[in-house]
């Protein structure tokens, strides 16, 4: 018995020797892999920067007493999601002050309009959540689709192999093995694409949820800061009169 001849072509041998259907699936998986790794590298950079600046933001946040100090910190750490929330709240507060701050009883009116500030902060939080989770859907789809694409190529390859054996009286391992091994290439490719996508998808979702939880806590704290700022303005006005 002579050993089966190993397919040539080196690293690309399995792809070269695969059928047209398998090659199309492999090309699709390679394109999905390229897009996935582009997303992974970009997310590693943006989420890492957001986490780092959020920690810096919270570190300096406890040492500030005036709203102007918070605003300055937010502009310096603009990649922290909390900065967007703070700037949105300050912008809404400034707009309300411009509209009602100079009229009689304006401070009491501002106190009643604090929900407007809360809504502005919530809108900013929603935008930041969308930004943190952008492109993650593609990773999720890849984790589900890539293994099935690979399996489809394998099933098709096995089917072609057995169809080729029709009429053969004594099929041997040497006649079956090349077709089976070529068919399994697509399954291997599918798993190579899906496994990193699944790992990084769950890692990024975890980081995004951590930042979203931080945003929820900060939004509540920010509303309290705004309320104290408005009450402080009311006290100053009463002291002047």
Automatic annotation (TrEMBL):
Keywords: Cell membrane, Membrane, Protein transport, Transmembrane, Transmembrane helix, Transport. The keyword Cell inner membrane does not apply. It is a multi-pass membrane protein. Signal peptide: none annotated. It is found in: Cell membrane; Membrane. It comes from the Bacteria. GO terms for biological process: protein import. GO terms for cellular component: plasma membrane. Residues 116-216 form the MotA/TolQ/ExbB proton channel domain. The chain crosses the membrane at residues 20-41, 136-163, 183-205. PANTHER family: PROTEIN TOLQ, TOL-PAL SYSTEM PROTEIN TOLQ. Belongs to the exbB/tolQ family. This is MotA/TolQ/ExbB proton channel domain-containing protein. The lineage of its organism: Bacteria, Bacteria division WOR-3.
């Amino acid at each position: 018995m002579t050993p089966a001849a190993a397919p040539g072509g080196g690293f690309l041998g399995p792809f070269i020797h695969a059928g047209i259907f398998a090659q199309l699936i492999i090309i699709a998986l390679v394109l999905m892999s390229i897009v996935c790794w582009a997303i992974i590298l970009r997310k590693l950079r943006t989420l890492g920067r957001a986490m780092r600046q959020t920690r810096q933001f919270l570190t300096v946040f406890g040492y500030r007493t005036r709203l102007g100090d918070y605003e300055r910190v937010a502009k310096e750490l603009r990649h922290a999601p909390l900065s967007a929330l703070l700037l949105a709240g300050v912008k809404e507060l400034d707009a309300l002050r411009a509209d009602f701050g100079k009229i009689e009883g304006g401070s009491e009116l501002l106190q009643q309009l604090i929900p407007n500030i809360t809504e502005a902060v919530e809108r900013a939080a929603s935008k930041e959540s969308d930004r943190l989770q952008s492109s993650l859907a593609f990773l999720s789809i890849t984790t589900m689709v890539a293994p099935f694409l690979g399996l489809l190529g394998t099933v098709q390859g096995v089917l072609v192999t057995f169809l080729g054996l029709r009429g053969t009286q004594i099929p041997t391992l040497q006649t079956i093995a090349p077709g089976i091994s070529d068919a399994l290439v697509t399954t291997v490719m599918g798993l190579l694409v899906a496994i990193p996508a699944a790992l990084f998808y769950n890692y990024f979702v975890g980081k995004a949820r951590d930042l979203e939880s931080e945003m929820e806590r900060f939004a509540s704290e920010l509303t309290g800061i705004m309320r104290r700022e408005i009450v402080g303005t009311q006290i100053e006005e009463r002291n002047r009169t």
